[in-house]
Structure formats: structure tokens, C-alpha cells
Amino acid sequence: MIGRLNHVAIAVPDLAEASARYRDALGAEVGPPMDLPEHGVRVVFVTLPNTKVELLEPLGEASPIAGFLGKSAGGGIHHICYEVEDILAARDRLVEAGARVLGGGEPKIGAHGKPVLFLHPKDFNGTLVELEQA
């Protein structure tokens, strides 16, 4: 059901600093920052030959990333994103298998302009999983 790895998301306390570190120290291609108010985050994507790294910074105190950084002030891996061909079919199959879909189960539009869903980390070995329709 799942396809390729789309990205690994890392929560960071300072997006500009993290972007500079990836660009200057690692020589990575770092995209421009994008605000995603519906998700409570500002993001940049680091493009790699085989996938992407998404750097996430909270947009305000109510952001889920602010809560994450409250527990891990220096940041850390927040979630992993896999591609699926049909997000609604994937959701239905997962729910039938007993997985919990967060946010009421309805897809939202993600940073790439495609529908996304998040799956409860307790159902996937402590890892928050994002599914993105390919």
C-alpha cells in the first residue's frame, strides 16, 4: 500500500538557523520557507537525490510543533511521510486494520499541495506517520 519515502520531518526551534546549517555545513539544496497556518507550521524542504527532509518551525504557541519542542527543546525527528496512490482507500484500509487516523480522519492539503493524513504514533512503534497522496 505505501509507496516511496516522501520526507522525514524534523522539528526545529529556529528555521533560519537550521536551514543555514543544512545549506552551509552539508551543502544541501534548501528551498524557501512556506507558512502553513492550517497546520500551524512554517516549513522548508531540503532536497536530496532520493527524498526530502522537511524542517518544521511552529507558527505560534498553539502549533503542535510548539508542544513537541516543549518536550525536546533542541528539536528532533517529528514524523516520517510515505506516499500512497489513493489516500482515501489507504485511510479506509488502515481504519479497518485498527489504526487510528488523527484529525477526524479527513485529509488536509499539505505543503506539496496534495492531500495528507496523519496516523497515531502508538499504532506505528512510536512514530508519527504522515501519508501523502502521490
Helix content: 10-25%
Biggest β-sheet: count, sense, barrel?
9 strands, mixed
The CATH superfamily title: 2,3-Dihydroxybiphenyl 1,2-Dioxygenase, domain 1
Please, how many domains?
Answer: 1
Structural shape: globular
Give the SSE string. Answer: EHEEEEHEHEEE
Number of strands: 9
Q: Give the CA-CA distance, first to last residue.
A: 12 Å
What is the CATH class name? Alpha Beta
- Which fold name fills CATH's third level, the topology? 2,3-Dihydroxybiphenyl 1,2-Dioxygenase, domain 1
Ranges with pLDDT <50 over ≥5 residues?
none
For the record, the CATH architecture stands as Roll
Count of separate DSSP helical elements = 3
Structural class: alpha+beta
Strand content: 35-45%
What Rg is obtained from the alpha carbons, in whole angstroms?
15 Å
- Mean pLDDT over the full residue set: 96
Question: What's this model, at a glance?
Answer:
With 134 residues, this protein is α+β, with helices and mostly antiparallel strands. The chain has helices at residues 15-25, 64-71, 87-96, and strands at 2-11, 29-30, 34-36, 41-47, 52-58, 76-84, 108-109, 115-119, 128-133. The N and C termini lie close together (12 Å).
Describe the structure.
Helix content is 22%, strand content 38%. By secondary structure, it is α+β, with helices and mostly antiparallel strands. Strands 1, 2, 3, 4, 5, 6, 7, 8 and 9 form a nine-stranded mixed beta sheet that branches. A hairpin with a 4-residue loop joins strand 3 (34-36) and strand 4 (41-47). It is globular. The model has no long low-confidence stretch (mean pLDDT 96).
